[in-house]
Amino acid sequence: MSMASPIDPTMQGVVWTKTLQETVRDYPRLSGEEVADLVVIGGGYSGLNTAIHAAKNGLRVVVLEAGRVGNGAAGRNGGYNVPQFPGGITPSVVEASVGRRKGLALADLVLHGADAVFRQIEAFQIKCSAVQNGWMQPAHSDASMQRVRKVHDEWKALGAKVEWHSPADVADLLGAQGYLGGWSNAQGGTVNPYSLSVGLARAAEQSGVRIFENSAVDGFEETAQGVIVRCGSSHVSARSAVFATNAYTGDFLPAVQKSVIPVYLYHVATKPLSEALRQKILKTQLCFTDLRKSGGFGRLDSDGRLISGGAVFDFGNKVAYGEEHARGRMKMLFPQLTDDDIQLESYWEGYCAVTDSYLPHILRLGRNVFSIGGFSTRGVNLAQNLGRLMGEVMAGKRELDDVPVNVYDHRNDIALWSIKARAARYVFPYYRLKDRLGMT
Fold first, then answer.
1. N or C: which end of the chain has fewer CB within 10 A?
2. Are 219 and 143 in contact (CB under 8 A)?
3. Angle at the Cα of 437 (from 434 to 439), degrees rounded to 5?
4. Secondary structure element (H or E) that encloses residue 76, with its range
5. Start-to-end CA span in the chain (Å)
6. Secondary structure of 223-250 in the HEC alphabet?
7. d(CA 386, CA 407)
8. pLDDT tens-digit map of 21-64
9. Which of 70, 62, 51, 56 is nearest to 11 (CA)?
């Protein structure tokens, strides 16, 4: 299965372009040779944060982006800044996966990472409709209630300022129906993810980073002096390189491509809801994500549009299928909405990089060549904070082992990658069935 050209630099249909506050810059295409201390491949959250924090610590940095800044997962996600691991993963599960020392450090990073993202937005004065009014994980079934309660209790035991909510509290705070309870963390919130990407690129440039767009990398080689990263007939010579391409890696680098599953997701946005409805639905601008495999989440954008979505069912009329599912999910969660309220203004798609463990990792591709990725729906928080740490590693301000994720000095391909990558595009009806049967 080829994933060589999944990039759409036009951002067509993406709702975040409608409320974009940052000014989109046109960066040049790489031409000839550039020389740097560090070359970062990928102009999304992890790449830009790696570049910013390496440059702030004295390195000359070049960023190469195959399309436009933020046109991948960074600019297409739902904009949820979540202080929790993916789904129902608990800190104890993470500790079992990465070891006690790194597990505790990663839990601390996740717990405080959402707030760190908001503080960095303030420091860089990024205009991205940032709202830090909290995030909730409600329970939609008896099975999910057990998992959600366990997640809450483990965070509580670690000293996190989390709050448990009764069914009545959940209904009041979210305006959503059918939940059995849930927990929240006030440090979470929402952003316009595309505007955040554009703002990070501005901050990177102000830090001295040189950014090149429409500069797709097709190979690299290490020499005694460092690494040469090639874009056709042009190249960057640097001491070290970091690939931050995630699900948009392409076929030229299978070691990175096959370490994650490119999950094909879509989002939709309604027309702006009336002020009266906004007093009933997500009235405090709290956002939420539940444990449904077929998508159970909600937030409003800065104009009051309700956002929904799920995994693309890449068969037949995928857009009609996705829109039908989203309308049904909105009606189920918010019965106060009429058909007129759920007129969909926007539909867009993108890829998310998911690992077997649902936790990010680092691959060592050479002496001084690395990749970081696999944020598994938690990119607004994890991609930025781990990118920051990676930038500090490349600048010699911390050791690689200080980054609290598994580091592999060998290929870490997902077993049966081709089958799983293709199956991910057709599995959504099965997820819907599991949800209806109360199995999630």
1. N
2. no
3. 60
4. helix 73-76
5. 29
6. CCCCEEEEECCEEEEEEEEEECCHHHCC
7. 13
8. 999 999 999 999 999 999 999 999 999 999 999 999 999 999 99
9. 70
